[in-house]
Amino acid sequence: MKKKILTALLCVTMVCGLAACGVSAPQTPAASTPAQEGTTAATTESKEEAQEQAPAADAITLVMAEVNPLDTIVGMTDQKFKEEVESRSNGSIIIDLQASGVLGSENDVLDTMLGGGGTIDMSRISAFALTSYGGKKSMLLSLPYTFVSREHFWNFATSDLAKEFLLEPSENGSGVRGLFYAEEGFRHFFTKSEIKDITSFKGMKLRVSNDPVMNGLVEGLGASPTVVSFGELYSALQTGVVDGAEQPIANYKSNAFPEVAPYMILDGHTLGAVQVIITDDAWNKLSAEQQNILMEAGAAASQYNREISEQKENEVLEELKADGVTVIDVDDKTPWQDAVKDVIAENIKGQEDLYQQIVDMQ
């Protein structure tokens, strides 16, 4: 017992002595936990990503307008273009993408761009939107039943002829130029009340933009063309200002038009050809290398659009049917084509050979 007490006293004495000398007992380093390691790695990666994504001090920002939401085919294509431009330029070009019509309707955007305001540098527009601004070639792309399939359109969009169309507005002094083509699927009519075939449109008020081709198409169907801006279309349908309108399938759903016009007939009168344009002022501010980056990014976005468009459209169509939208198929388009022959003949005057080149690409 005495030995145990002595041993304990000796231990206490040694510990006190070490403490008095300022010496501490050696400690085994604590192992890093997985969470700590992960946090450290994540922090490092975040810093590296921030450095990579941070725009250069002299980065050029291009404001880009889109009338549709980002979850549409064209919205997704815009985002792909933005990603490609910023990645390929290493942040020296930033695309400020403003979607869902926050910068105005398509015509509002074009008025701003062509007016030289400088507040909008780029936009995704319908390929035939420039018709009202002197785009004679662009008008040919809007003529009903010109493109018989998506493949037909892409044969045109990837041809040398398409390049001529893209440069037309710059060459005629409009102040903008096209970068690339894409598409958002065939356009179809939708209405508030039930429709069965082409005869159902007689006497209806159908929304149109201020476009002579669309006016002629609607009149050919026996309906009354009524000009309504896209931003006011939902309320115009809701209040009965118009009885129907037309849009690609994806845009019809994303803009909630099924809520007020739950009948759609798949007439496919026009392929929704689109293009991205840039003002000549913005284009000329870019170096030759930066201009080339925009063209390469456009080619990548165009290819992406080609890969997703039909699949996305089919998915949306099934969703619409599941949600209760009445979808009417058109087995024979002959009556529709006959109804618009005069519209086509009237609007290809002086460009018959050019139009025939497009038709022959099917």
TrEMBL record:
Transmembrane segments: none annotated. It holds the Pfam family DctP. Residues 25-55 are annotated as: Disordered. One of its GO terms (cellular component) is outer membrane-bounded periplasmic space. InterPro entries: DctP_fam (IPR018389), TRAP_DctP (IPR004682), TRAP_DctP_sf (IPR038404). Residues 25-44 have a biased composition (Low complexity). Residues 1-19 form the signal peptide. It comes from the Bacteria. Belongs to the bacterial solute-binding protein 7 family. PANTHER family: C4-DICARBOXYLATE-BINDING PROTEIN DCTB, PTHR33376. This is TRAP transporter substrate-binding protein. It comes from Waltera intestinalis.
